[in-house]
Every structure is written in structure tokens, then in C-alpha cells.
Amino acid sequence: MTITDSATTSLADRWRDAAPPHDSAGWIARAREVADILAVDAVERDRANQAPYGEVELLKASGLVTLLGPREHGGAGETWDTAYKVIRAVARGDGSIGQVLGYHYLWAWAARLVATDAQVAAVEELYTSNAFLFGGAVNPRDSDLVIREDGDDLIFSGRKSFSTGGRVSDLTVLEGVLEGTETHIFAIVPTAQEGIVFAGDWDNLGQRLTESGSVEIRDVRVPWSDAAGFVDKQFQSLVYNTLNVPAIQLVFANFYLGIAEGALETASAYTRERTRPWPYGGDDKQRATEEWYVLEGYGTLQSKLWADEALLDAVGAEISAVLHAPREELTERRRGEIAVRIAAGKLRIVDDGLEVASKIYELTGARATSNAVGLDIFWRNLRTHSLHDPIAYKKREVGEYVLLSQVPVPTWYT
Predict the structure, then answer these.
(1) In degrees rounded to 5, what are phi and psi of residue 284?
(2) Under a CB-based contact definition with an 8 Å cutoff, are residues 68 and 78 in contact?
(3) What is the value of pTM for the model shown?
(4) DSSP letter for each residue of 313-356
(5) Which domains does the chain have, with CATH numbers?
(6) C-alpha 193 chain-centroid distance
(7) 215: which of 59, 72, 139, 275 lies 20 to 30 Å off by Cα?
């Protein structure tokens, strides 16, 4: 089974006559429905490595794409606290699609992070009323796109080696440096245009359906009036502008947790149904679910994920409150304290998630290594994206806070 165009239509019918959820719990339940659909053929779709058009249509039909959008334009008007839990729930069924959705939420919020009030209103009405999906050509490790002025326009040119959302997005966030200056400029543009050329070259170990390949930006023209946060060609700077990094780092941590939860859930179902007890240990059991080492193993792994969930939920509530508060209120110290807590949550779920994705083989048994079972997808997905930035630096950030009461200086990664 794969998510074809015809299947997408029938899946859209699933919610056609249903009232949208009216609270956070309802939206998380909706996300779990989506995850259950995705989980059915996640391994097959991962191996096919096709651009996830059908999967994105599923996100749109379910209403998850406009979760953070204003109610007056048809959105759910939900908070980031809910969004993080929705990302986690979707990633439980398919880590790639959890990432696509999480990045979409961050880029959909990008206008609020840096734009003027008028720009925010225009962008949120556009994407919410049309259920548009965001992608982003904003990989900071690459040389920035070059921006040159042409009268009242800006022209973006260059290349990014990663652009999550790629061909399946409706809108793309561009970021570059104005020629002859050190001024960074963000702008939101339609994806479908001649000047945005995706290579379709994302063929990595994991997160294979994130459409994260390279992109060429060839003379994409943007009015100066669309330069996010600029008034009379001057950027209006706030500490709030720098929340993009901690916000997306917590996106990462939540879809890592979702992947790890999916791994444990899939493995435990396999153990209940197919794992055989060991007959040569002198303590023979009738079922694998009676084996002491199997019970101990699952108990240890679940305990770690419950602890990770508690930490991520707590810091998710903290940053959500700040993201929805007036932008002028945020201080550098408060921003830094939240970033440290997010770093702590991320480093824990990376370590614990990779342990879960590896340890489940010891608990399911040798037959579970069959490609038909597909348990490898969880480790591959976690291992791939957790290399986004070195986890050692997250540990250092937490250590500097504990020992020196220092908070991270905002960069593209802190």
C-alpha cells in the first residue's frame, strides 16, 4: 500500500464531514490518526524514496498544516505547546513526515519571528486560507545566497545543499546577505517559479521522504517591501527574532521522540506476536513476554522515553508561552535559559532514542532483522537527523549554564 492520488482523495473524505477538533487534545488525536495511516506503509514508501506529495495532501486534509494559523482565516489558532505534541505524534508513524510538518510550523511562524505586523498578517492569511505548506532554503552551513538590489526589488541568487520541503512545498523561505553588506534578509516566495530549481538529489540513509535535497536559486525577484522585518530598508531588531533556533531545535527533539516511541511501539508489537522465548537458559518460559530480560529491557527503554517526554513537554510549555507573548517582552537572559533547557532535552532524546532504536533488536530477536520487518527505519531516521549539529556542543551549553551561569549567545545553531 502506498499513498496514491486516489488514496489521498479517500483519506480526505475521512474528515470531510467531520467537525475540526476544538481543543489541543482533539488535534493531538487527529495527529495520531494521521500517524496510524502513515505507519501502514512507512517502510515501503521510505524505500521507494519518492517526493511525498500524497503524504502532504494527507497533512492538509487532516487540518494539521493550518494548526497554528489564525482562526479568522480557517486555522486552528492553536499554540506551539500543541504543535510540538502534534509533530511528535505524526513522527511516531513516519519520522520523515513529522520533520516536514515540524519545519513547516517553524517557517510558517517565521513571519512572526522577524516580520512587521503588516507582513505577519499578510503571510498568515495567505498560507492559512490556502493550506499552503512551507519549505525553507535556509541551510546556514552553506554560503549565503547573494542578494542584489534592483530599484525597489531584491534579487536572490545562489545554492543551498539542503532545502527541507523542497518540491512538495507551496511557499519557500529564502535567506541571504545583501551584496556589499553583512545584512541578512529573509523573504517568503512562491515555490513554483522558474528561478527555484530543485535537484531532487536527497537520497540519504534516513529521513528519506523529507524532500531535503539541494536547490538552485536563480535570480528570484522579491519586492523590498517583502523583506521580512525591514522598514525603509532598516531591520527592526528584537531579541524575539532569535527564537527561530531554539524553536526549531525543540522541533527536532520532538520528532526524535516520536521516532523513538514508534520504534518501541513497533518492536513491542513484534515481541508480543512473534518473538520466541529462549529455551536453553535453564529458566524456560512459555512466551517471550515472560522472559525476565525482555521485560527488563522494555521497562528500561520505556522509562527513559517517559522521562524525555516529561522534559520536552515542560520546556515546550515554556517556549510556547514566550512565542505567544508580546514580542517586545523577551529578554536575552530568558531566551538563553529556554535555549539551555531545549539543549538538555535534545541531548537526552538523541542518546535515549538511539539506544531504543538499537536495543529493540536484542528484545525482538534475530528474525526481526529481516528487511520485511523494517525495524531499521527508526535507527536510520534518528541517526541521520541527529547529526544536524554536534550534540557535544549542546552538552557544553548545558555545562556552561550549570558551572558558569552562562547562556548561549544566539547563533544559527544556539
Answers:
(1) -60, 135
(2) yes
(3) 0.96
(4) HHHHHHHHHHHTS-GGG--HHHHHHHHHHHHHHHHHHHHHHHHH
(5) 5-133 (1.10.540.10), 135-235 (2.40.110.10), 239-404 (1.20.140.10)
(6) 25
(7) 59
